[in-house]
Design a protein that fits this description.
Blueprint: E1 2-8, E2 13-19, E3 24-30, H1 41-59, E4 68-75, H2 83-89, E5 92-99, H3 100-109, E6 114-119, E7 123-128, E8 134-138, H4 141-144, H5 150-166, H6 174-182, H7 187-194, H8 201-205, H9 208-216, H10 220-244, E9 251-256, H11 263-273, E10 279-281, H12 288-299
Helix pairs in contact: 3-12, 5-10, 9-10, 10-11
Length: 308
């Protein structure tokens, strides 16, 4: 009897196979699987699932794909347009297709209640309580949301550098740092570069570490931007917490994503979250693919102690 968990993301797809005793047998990797509606998106999804699951099966010592007792897929971009495609590829007595945030939470908490705050290019907070009720805050994209995410941090840095260049904002090391990193000669030129197709959101977000570096060197503008980002991310966590958990109830909050590689921001985030009695910030216990595998066991009604 085999169980399958799959993390289908924007950059890669990871599959994990486990047996009925909770022993993880194999893992496989493939390309992205989230953009079904884009050109060749359906074909890319099928290829990513087949390759990652096939590799996991071979890693587990299986000659062919089994009929799984249960499978759980957590998909970036939402599950609605992917379930039928996945069901045509994978044989499973029970198939759950859910969001990437849900399997990230299951991995972070080991299947228990809690909250995750994901801050990569964008941002979102997602939680589940002991009664199984879920709630989210944020994750509304770079135009209307994603506060505290990498793109937003760089956007705020660009705005601060523009104000510096135009003489109506305080001096900041962010201006020369951004110009040097991008090869632009002025902030006006850089602004126009960021509007082109050559600078998609994830590429722009990749310069967020420049803000962290400037903050560590004492730049007050950069430090302010990191404090603001930490406050926004903590606010997202607090919103989810207030809707799912009673005041003072013990809650695990796990930060996930590249933004939290900034030790300064991560520490400010921890301090702000833990101001609430009962709230504790801790790193995730497992990655999202393992979270998906836990979701597969749960879909089959099994409470399993994993053996990694």
């Amino acid at each position: 009897m085999y169980f399958l968990g799959v993390d289908g993301g924007q950059s890669s797809t990871t599959a994990v196979i486990g047996d009925e005793h909770g022993l993880v047998l194999g893992r496989g990797e493939a390309g992205p699987s989230n953009h079904v509606e884009s050109e060749s998106g359906r074909e890319k999804l099928i290829a990513a699932v087949e390759q990652s699951v096939g590799q996991a099966a071979r890693s587990a010592g299986l000659d062919s794909l089994p009929a799984f007792a249960a499978a759980c897929f957590g998909m970036s971009g939402g599950p609605a347009d992917k379930r039928d495609i996945i069901a045509s590829i994978i044989r499973a007595e029970s198939l759950e297709v859910t969001t990437d945030a849900h399997i990230a939470l299951l991995g972070a908490t080991g299947g228990g209640p809690g909250i995750i705050v994901i801050a990569g290019t964008g941002s979102i907070a997602y939680g589940q309580n002991a009664g199984g009720r879920t709630m989210r805050a944020g994750g509304w994209g770079h135009i209307f949301g994603d506060e505290g995410g990498g793109f937003d941090i760089v956007r705020q840095a660009l705005r601060a550098a523009l104000r510096h260049e135009e003489g109506w904002g305080p001096p900041t090391a962010l201006r020369p740092a951004l110009l040097q990193a991008t090869g632009a000669s002025t902030m006006n030129e850089l602004l126009h570069l960021f509007y082109t197709r050559d600078f998609p959101r994830d590429r722009v977000a990749g310069w967020a570490p420049l803000v962290d570096a400037a903050a560590l060197e004492g730049d007050e503008v950069a430090r302010t931007l990191l404090r603001q980002a930490a406050q926004q991310l903590a606010t997202l966590a607090g919103s989810v917490r207030s809707q799912l958990f009673a005041p003072g109830e013990v809650v695990l909050v796990s930060p996930i994503g590249g933004v939290f590689h900034s030790r300064m921001l991560a520490e400010w985030f921890r301090i702000l979250v833990e101001l609430e009695p009962g709230a504790t910030v801790a790193p995730p216990k497992h990655d999202p693919a393992i979270g998906a595998l836990l979701g597969a066991y749960a879909a089959a009604g099994r409470a399993i102690q994993l053996h990694l």
